[in-house]
Amino acid sequence: QLQLQESGPGLVKPSETLSLTCTVSGGSISTTNYYWAWIRQPPGKGLEWIGSIYYSGTTYYKSSLTSRVTIYLDASKNQFSLKLSSVTAADTAVYYCVRHKSSASGPFYKRAPYSWFDPWGQGTLVSVSS
Amino acid sequence: SYEVTQPPSVSVSPGQTASITCSGDKLGDKFASWYQQKPGQSPVLVIYQDTKRPSGIPERFSGSNSGNTATLTIRGTQAMDEADYYCQARDSNIGGVFGGGTKLTVL
Fold first, then answer.
1. Cβ–Cβ < 8 Å for B75, B63
2. A68-115: pLDDT as tens digits
3. Cβ-based interface (< 8 Å): residues of A facing B
4. Chain A residue with minimal CA distance to B45?
5. How many angstroms separate the CA of residue B98 from the nearest CA in chain A?
6. From CA B87, how far away is CA B68, in angstroms rounded?
7. Contacting residues of B for A66, CB less than 8 Å apart
8. Would you state the pLDDT for residue A108?
9. Is B3 helix (H, G, I), strand (E, B) or coil?
10. How far is B28 from B41, CA to CA, in rounded Å?
C-alpha cells in the first residue's frame, strides 16, 4: 500500500524559505503513471494545489506561486521535495504531499483532461512567524 | 482563471440522501473529482472522473456531472459521513482547481 510522509520544520521565519520533503513507501516515484504533488490548506480554509512533478523531473506550478516555488525529486531516496521562498504569514498552512494522476485526454466517452489526487500524506503544519 | 463554487453547508437526516453541488462554467465538459475530509484528517478521494469510485469507497457514494454542475450524492447517509467535501476540476493547469468546500452535517 502506497504511503507518503511529509517532513520538515514546523516553523519558518518571514522572508525565509520553507523546505519540506515527502518520503514515498510502498511504491516507486519513478513511475510513468503518476505525478507527485504538493497541496496546502490554511487553517480553517480550503485546499490549494501548489505544484506537481513527473518522474522525469518536469514540473508544473500554480501560476500565482511560480516565482517562489521549486519542486524536485530524488529517485535514489524515493523522495520529492518542496521549496517555497520569501514566505509570509499567508503561507501558514498544512502542507500535504500526494500522488497525482493527470492526463490531457480522458477515456473515449469524454475526451477531456482529468486530474485527481490519491493517496494523501498525513500533512504537516508549517507556521510562518518571527 | 477557472473557478468552481460549492455551497458552504448542507444538512441531511440519517438514512436520507445528501446532494452536494459544485458549479462552474461548462463544468460538464471537464472531469470532476470529490474528496472527503474529516476533522483532523487528510482528504480522501471518494469520486474521480465524475462517476468512478476508488476501491474501498462505499457504494452509497456516487457522482454525476452535466452542464454547469457536478453533484456528489450520498444515499442512506450515515453519521460517519459527516465531513467537509471538496470538488476539484482540471483546468488549464494539471492540478486543477478546488472548490471552497461544503460542510455536510448529519442531523
1. no
2. 999 999 999 999 999 999 999 999 999 999 999 998 888 888 888 899
3. 35, 37, 39, 46-52, 60, 62-63, 96, 100-102, 106-107, 110, 112-123
4. A118
5. 6
6. 13
7. none
8. 82
9. coil
10. 30
